[in-house]
Amino acid sequence: MLKEAPAELKLVVAGNHDITLDEEYYTRIGHYRHRYRTDHTAASATAGKENVGAFSEEEGRVESVREIKALWTSEEAVNAGIRYMEEGVQTFTLGNGARFTVYASPYTPEFCQWAFAYDRDTDRFNPPRSVSEGVFVPPNPVPDDGVDIMLTHGPPYGILDKVVGTHASVGCENLFRAVERAKPRLHVFGHIHEAYGAARLEWSTRNQSIIQCDKETTLEDRCAYTDVSGESMSPLRVGDETLFVNASVVTVQYQAMNPPWLVDLELPYLASQTNGLNLP
């Protein structure tokens, strides 16, 4: 599907259910989800163990992690404009001269033994205030500035992150601190399916404005659309505001019913425009 999408650049970031893209996790415990055919709603990676043996069912196949990752990083994928992003920063230049920097991370707070997880008390997005023995130093913290777009699997705390039932915010507090430091133009994430939507946040007041889309227009256009470009009625104030998008396509029942988001956004422009795509 991504290969056929008519877009110049297609960025891919893994998430907690992409167990075969987290080699350390899959080797350590994630393979049990395949071996024991563990359901995606199970409380742990080995919860499906009872499915094997009692009825003489065959064990599931243990996948080759590197072969699967190669599907996303192959020459064929690259030629199709697909870029699989590990945690960290990359800068891209499009054929129209737009040049922008993206910070990406597949990691989310630990929940039910899924992939790309970290302890909620661990800060992997901000540099430590001091470095001493025993202090965790994140390998790829969010830079202070220069990031135009953040693309993370999970949400920051308090922004499009409330779950059904308790209505509690379950986003990452440390990720919010990092976004507040970097103040990107756009932050896209998913993970909390029931919190699908978009919001603008004004940093000086912390006020959030939920983006409202006309349902009939969204159905007709087959996407939810918002325009924060310089030509819009309300242009994004870069450095003062960030547009947040929870782009979860699936609902809390894991049904693909949420329309994708389309955002018109001003990006930095490279003075010496290239004639084609210039990507790492």
UniProtKB/TrEMBL annotation:
Q: Which InterPro entries match?
A: Metallo-depent_PP-like, UPF0046_metallophosphoest
**Gene3D superfamilies named in the record:** 3.60.21.10
User: Which PANTHER family does the record cross-reference, listed alphabetically?
Assistant: CALCINEURIN-LIKE PHOSPHOESTERASE DOMAIN-CONTAINING PROTEIN (PTHR12905:SF0), METALLOPHOSPHOESTERASE (PTHR12905)
The molecule here is called Ser/Thr protein phosphatase family protein
